[in-house]
DNA sequence: AATGAATGAGCTTTCATTCAT
DNA sequence: CATGAATGAAAGCTCATTCAT
């Protein structure tokens, strides 16, 4: 769907994505019908299919928008950091913060990862983020700041820790205090540092 | 659904659960229809509803069976370990191994965690496992083997690392070599150990 | 279904009819499933089809049993009455009393009258009762106790009054006091008597 | 189901109600499927659920429409009557006539009265009609035209007579001649008049 | 751009009935 | 006589998508 949209058109598209993202996150993608979405906005069904080819494309668009935003935040976070380790830490913090702020996107990512129809689209973005983090890890190794091992795996480990933590918060099983974030950051850093004097 | 089942009945129930679990994991819960399941077994539709109240209850039963099996494996793994740290390590290894061996269950857990209808049922099992791990962490703290901090959070961090790793393997993004497992175990242990001499 | 039944068999058949009659009356014929009936008695489905060809035949049997019982009561009520008018009055009273006592049968009659599949079976019994009453009305006319008119219609009118009254009671819109019964009886008698001095 | 309907929409809704009312009356509510209804109109299944939430709501709508129409007729019939007794008589006649003309509605009322799911909705309309009639009876008592007794019961008695009579006609057991109507009207009036000189 | 109406395949579920044991 | 298992047609209903206006 590549339509030239007017100003108003862009707004409508955004509205649809926002509303749908919330319903998808709260109710689930499958249980949320297109009818529900358009009724929620008080528009006709035609509107939906004017802006999106299908419900599937809608979710894909939402996911892409979310990944773009997360990516921006991560990029911004590490600029100005002087050492690889600082870049790693800032990246972790940025990811956690963004995920805590964007419950809806986060939950949609989680769901999309369980569905082959969407997992592929997600993969690319995730790989970019992981490769980025891995590069910093790699840099730190070269700089002798941390012992040599597989940078990609380490990056993934950190992703696992932060993701799980945010998940807990959004499920209401944990409160998002500074302590919690510090704990996760610490866990990651010491995990990366490995058998080393501090 | 509490029905007295004959030997044959038990077998059919098991068949339905096995087949459905595989379809759910490969195709998704929502996209897999009851019709597909009964056709796959070559039985009439009524058979399904003889053994389960609904498609939802079927998934819940599958999840419960999976959690029970995982729990058993974890219990068996830590018996005979002499120190808290050894218990932690064995528990991590057992969880990873079980999850790698039971792709279908693992993927259903992942999906169920994204759907409120099933997440609650999952929570209890997860909490038990986490509390168990947290106790070993706590024991290690008391024994002075690791520095004091929040045992529950640490347990969750380890769960996050292992879960994410297994997820990668099942998505085909990583090969399940010994190295990979060692890396994760190491990451967890050093993460738990924190700022400490080795 | 003409099966020679043992003592125990008769009892089972009776049990099935009793239980089903209650469920049919309370829940409706269509919404009550055979499964529900056999489960209510704690027996297998085979039992049901041993005693009845079908659910339909079951209801027909219940209706027939009810009509037989009502007929008996009516017959008994009018024996010993000396005048036609007394027979009419006693018949009315007996019908009302029986119907009040046998809510289940009464409600099934009401339902059956709305369904072609059962209405025919009912008709015969009703016609017998009406013809009986009509004969007494006719006798009263010949005896000069009431003015000439259509005895059959008058009998039906009385049936309408009593039926409606009982219906009200069973729906909980009226309490079954003596007054209520007297009122109905009076209404019928004066309706039958017509333009006449008292 | 509160949908803004276009002209065309209103027509479709009406079509569905008309067709369904006929099938329900002839075949029974339960035995008539939604598929049968939409096929009868040559439209897709979705059309049905565009206009009605459920099959149950459809019947409720039909019943409400019928009651509204009957009520209108009754209201019109008694305007211009000068005495309470005349109002009573005109009301009876109007009810009988309407019921004879609207076999479909009448039969649906009869069925609905036997099913708890619909009986409640019916009750309100019936009570209004009965209370109306009871008021006229009450007026007649105050005017000394008839002896004192329970006006509500008398109104119900009349309802019972007329209902039963119409039922007979619709079942083909009676022809709807003037005589028949006169007989019923007379029965009711003398029943109401009670032990009184004429 | 937008609407209300329509489509129809497909969904989950029910249920009268049959059958092997 | 009785049971639990099985059948499969058909039920009520949903929903992504299309279309006429």
Question: In a nutshell, what does this entry contain?
Answer:
The structure is a homotetramer of 198-residue chains. Chain A is mainly alpha-helical. Helix content of chain A is 76%, strand content 0%.
Summarize this structure as a short list of keywords or feature phrases.
homotetramer; 198 residues; mainly alpha; Arc Repressor Mutant, subunit A; Tetracycline Repressor, domain 2; 2 domains; 76% helix; 0% strand; DNA-binding
Structural features, described:
Four copies of one chain form a homotetramer. Chain A is mostly helical and 198 residues long. Chain A folds into two domains: 1-53, Homeodomain-like (Arc Repressor Mutant, subunit A), CATH 1.10.10; 59-193, Tetracycline Repressor, domain 2, CATH 1.10.357.10. Chain A is 76% helix and 0% strand. The first copy, chain A, contains nine helices and no strands. The relative contact order of chain A is 0.10. Chains in contact: A-B, C-D. At the C-D interface, helix 6, helix 7, helix 8 and helix 9 of C face helix 6, helix 7, helix 8 and helix 9 of D. Chain B binds a DNA duplex (21 and 21 nucleotides) through helix 1 and helix 3.
């Amino acid at each position: 769907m590549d339509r030239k949209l007017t100003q108003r058109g862009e707004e409508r598209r955004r509205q649809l994505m926002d509303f749908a993202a919330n319903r998808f996150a709260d109710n689930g993608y499958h249980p949320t019908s297109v009818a529900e979405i358009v009724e929620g906005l008080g528009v006709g069904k035609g509107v939906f299919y004017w802006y999106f080819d299908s419900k599937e494309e809608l979710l894909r668009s939402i996911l892409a928008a979310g990944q773009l935003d997360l990516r921006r935040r991560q990029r911004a976070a590490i600029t100005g950091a002087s050492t690889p380790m600082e870049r790693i830490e800032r990246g972790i913090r940025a990811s956690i913060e963004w995920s805590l702020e964007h419950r809806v996107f986060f939950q949609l990512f989680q769901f999309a990862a369980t569905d082959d129809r969407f997992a592929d689209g997600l993969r690319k973005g995730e790989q970019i983020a992981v490769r980025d983090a891995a590069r910093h890890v790699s840099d730190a190794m070269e700089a002798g700041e941390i012992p040599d091992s597989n940078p990609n795996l380490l990056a993934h480990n950190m992703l696992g820790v932060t993701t799980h933590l945010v998940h807990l918060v959004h499920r209401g099983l944990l409160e998002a205090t500074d302590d919690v974030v510090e704990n996760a950051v610490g866990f990651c850093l010491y995990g990366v540092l490995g058998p080393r004097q501090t």
